[in-house]
UniProtKB/TrEMBL annotation:
Residues annotated as transmembrane: 636-659
Gene3D superfamilies to which the protein is assigned, alphabetical: Cadherins
Membrane topology: Single-pass membrane protein
Keyword terms of this UniProt record: Calcium, Glycoprotein, Membrane, Repeat, Transmembrane, Transmembrane helix
Localization (cell): Membrane
SUPFAM superfamilies for the chain: Cadherin-like
Pfam families xref list: Cadherin
Protein name according to UniProt: Protocadherin-20
Domain of life: Eukaryota
InterPro entries with a match to the protein in the record: Cadherin-like_dom, Cadherin-like_sf, Cadherin_CS, Protocadherin/Cadherin-CA
Domain Cadherin: 1-66, 67-281, 282-385, 386-488, 492-609
Length: 697
């Protein structure tokens, strides 16, 4: 019925056109479903497919038709007004408005017949419209037209014969219990057994003859006397009925008297479908596969479920379950399952979620199937090093073929696509790498005096087709040994001094000790400590082990005036043994310097200082330490013992000192990481004293 005509323009673009090859008749087949396949010219060729659904729309190409050209109808002269005597029905195979049929009498039908028999223009039912009189014609020819849009009317003739009644036949009077419309009883399927349909009263109008009755027809129905009343009969069901097995029943209640007169009352039963069947999937588990890096909106499968019910109850809609990822789409009507985005096997390899088939009944019924989707691997990931740059610190004179470090590399692909081989791109005459373990080794002993660092590149190649690769930079730094003690740059001399005013507030910085170390790495990390003190109250000063800043710890009193001498030890963290230097820090507490010669004479005297061998504690790793709360309780207790009378003043001073200490610790912890020495040539007149961050060590 259809074919594709592929045309190619001057730019080489191909466009398929759908060509109709045969005559289309919607009444024969209203829908065609095909699959279009596109094939590229690669080797091997790759295919893409799409489902093409062609719906045939209706045109008014059929006119109403009657099955018969004439029907014969017999009416008794005593028939009740409003009794249906016949029904005509024409068929139009078109749809919608094209199939609308209206019935009417031909202009040839006499007005007397039209007044006696009423024709329903929609249903085609002919009813007795008025009482049959004695002078009415015995035969009526009713020409009935079935009119369709744009069509010549179809014609049928109803020949009605009226029988004059001498002896009135038995009467059958129905009283319907079930829903009845125009002589048709409507019952729901699966109604329980013994569901009543109607009562029938059977009687002889003359009250002269005995009347009997029975049920003529097949089906799960029973007509039985209804006691304790006479001539009353009950029509009821004998078993549940299933719409999917049979939808329509027709029977007759027949009554006859002893004179042989028979009367039939036609009973039509139409079953109403109930939503008693849930949709059924062909497979409860739907297993699918797709290669990763698929095109957006890629076709996965077409779901199919069947429902035995009719009408809307049998129409099936498809829905994704609540566990389905948002990038899967399911067409509710066609059941076509697609994925809207590219899938990455390395991100997720297997998907498992539910789909639902729901009918349109009230209440709806549904069934569930499980979709199991496996994403197939492609070689779309290059080997990936754990770090872009690797740095290794190796002590000088490192032995040949010693283990320098592990080069870690991964490949997110699977199978052969995930196999990785390592090789050294440059410096391969000095270094070699173990492909299996990724261990980097040096073929020869490394001497820092010959070369202090090496930079090489390592390449990782996977086993895919085509193979993918990546490189990483390796930096090898040879570590120095500790052979230089710290060099104190400030103060420049043990004979220098600094004036400290008595009004200086506790916690204020007074001066600093600044030193550098010509070594590198850990050998150049410096710590400061006071190992000796002399003066009126030298413990009033403390030194920061990291920065070398000297601060005043407590308020200066008049008894504290004079020269304070602090012996400061500047030590590195060298290995195997740290080296150190010492410097004397001289602080003169006074309002002014009135006699410099006197101070210089004090400085020339050898101070008697007891050495305190207390190693400074300094953290090498940069870390944020919590400010330790400084306990003020000992200070408060001591001040309380000295003078109970001035307890309020003493308490206030103690709290003030504590707050100042807490602020000082907070500033130091926020602003300081680790100090490293200056590198290169040092200008003793221009010194950069700002601490430097070495968090990269």
């Amino acid at each position: 019925m259809f074919t594709l005509d592929v045309e190619e323009n001057e730019n080489g673009e191909r466009t398929p056109y759908l060509i109709v090859m045969g005559d289309l008749d919607r009444e024969t087949q209203d829908q065609y479903v095909s699959i279009i396949i596109a094939e590229d010219g690669g080797s091997p060729p790759l295919l893409g497919s799409a489902t093409l659904t062609i719906g045939i729309s209706d045109i008014n190409d059929n006119c109403p038709l009657f099955v018969d050209s004439q029907i014969n109808v017999t009416v008794y002269g005593n028939a009740t007004v409003g009794t249906p005597i016949a029904a005509v029905q024409a068929v139009d195979r078109d749809l919608g408005t094209n199939a609308q049929i209206t019935y009417s009498y031909s202009q040839k039908v006499p007005q007397e017949s039209k007044d006696l028999f009423h024709l329903d223009e929609t249903t085609g039912v002919i009813k007795l419209f008025s009482k049959i009189g004695g002078n009415v014609l015995q035969t009526h020819k009713l020409t009935i037209l079935a009119n369709g849009p744009g069509c010549i009317p179809a014609v049928i003739t109803a020949l009605v014969s009226i029988i004059k009644v001498i002896f009135r036949p038995p009467e059958i009077v129905p009283r319907y219990i079930a829903n009845e419309i125009d002589g048709v009883v409507y019952l729901k399927e699966l109604e329980p057994v013994n569901t009543p349909i109607a009562f029938f009263t059977i009687r002889d109008p003359e009250d002269k003859y005995k009347v009997n009755c029975y049920l003529d027809g097949e089906g799960p129905f029973r007509l039985s006397p209804y006691k304790p009343y006479n001539n009353e009969y009950l029509l009821e069901t004998t078993k549940p009925m299933d719409y999917e097995l049979q939808q329509f029943y027709e029977m007759a209640v027949v009554a006859w008297n002893s004179e042989g007169f028979h009367v039939k009352r036609i009973i039509k039963v139409q079953l109403l479908d109930d939503n008693d069947n849930a949709p059924i999937f062909l497979q409860p588990l739907i297993e699918l596969t797709i290669e990763e890096n698929n095109a957006p909106n890629a076709f996965l499968t077409k779901l199919h479920a069947t429902d035995a019910d009719s009408g809307e109850r049998g129409q099936v809609l498809y829905f994704l379950g609540p566990d389905a990822p948002s990038y899967f789409s399911l067409d509710n009507v066609t059941g076509i399952l697609t994925v809207s985005t590219q899938l990455d096997r390395e991100e997720k390899e297997k998907y498992r979620y539910t789909v639902r088939a729901v009918d349109c009944g009230k209440p709806p019924k549904e069934s569930v199937a499980t979709v199991a989707l496996t994403v197939l691997d492609k070689n779309d990931n290059s080997p990936r090093f754990i770090n872009k740059d690797f740095s290794f610190f190796v002590p000088e004179n490192f032995p040949a073929y010693g283990e320098i470090g592990v080069i870690s590399v991964t490949d997110a692909d699977a199978g052969r696509n995930g196999w990785v081989a390592l090789s050294v791109v440059n410096q391969s005459d000095i270094f070699v790498i173990d492909t299996g373990k990724g261990m980097l080794r040096a073929k020869v002993s490394l001497d820092r005096e010959q070369q202090s660092s090496y930079t090489l590149w390592v390449e990782a190649v996977d086993g895919g087709e085509p193979a993918l690769s990546s490189t990483a930079k390796i930096t090898i730094l040879l570590l120095d040994i500790n052979d230089n003690p710290p060099l104190v740059l400030f103060p420049q001399s043990n004979m220098s001094y600094l004036l400290v005013l008595p009004s200086t507030l506790p916690g204020s910085p007074v001066t600093e000790v600044y030193a550098v170390d010509k070594d590198t790495g850990m050998n150049a990390v410096i710590a400061y400590s006071i190992i000796g003190r002399r003066g009126p109250r030298p413990e009033s000063f403390r030194i920061d082990p990291k920065t070398g800043n000297i601060t005043l710890e407590e308020a200066l009193l008049q008894t504290h005036y004079g020269l304070h001498r602090l012996l400061v030890k500047v030590s590195d963290h060298g290995y195997p043994e740290p080296l150190h230097s010492t410097v004397m820090v001289n602080l003169f507490v006074n309002d002014t310097v009135s006699n410099e010669s006197y101070i210089e004479s004090l400085l020339r005297k050898e101070p008697e200082i007891n050495i305190e061998e207390k190693e400074p504690q300094i953290s090498i790793e940069p870390t944020q330490r919590k400010v330790e709360s400084v306990s003020c309780m000992p200070t408060l207790v001591a001040l309380s013992v000295i003078s109970l009378g001035s307890i309020t003043l003493v308490t206030g001073m103690g709290i003030y000192i504590c707050l100042r200490k807490g602020e000082k610790h907070h500033r130091e912890d926020e602003n300081f990481e680790v100090q490293i020495p200056l590198k290169g040539k040092i200008d003793l007149h221009i010194r950069e004293r700002k601490p430097m961050d070495i968090s990269n060590i």
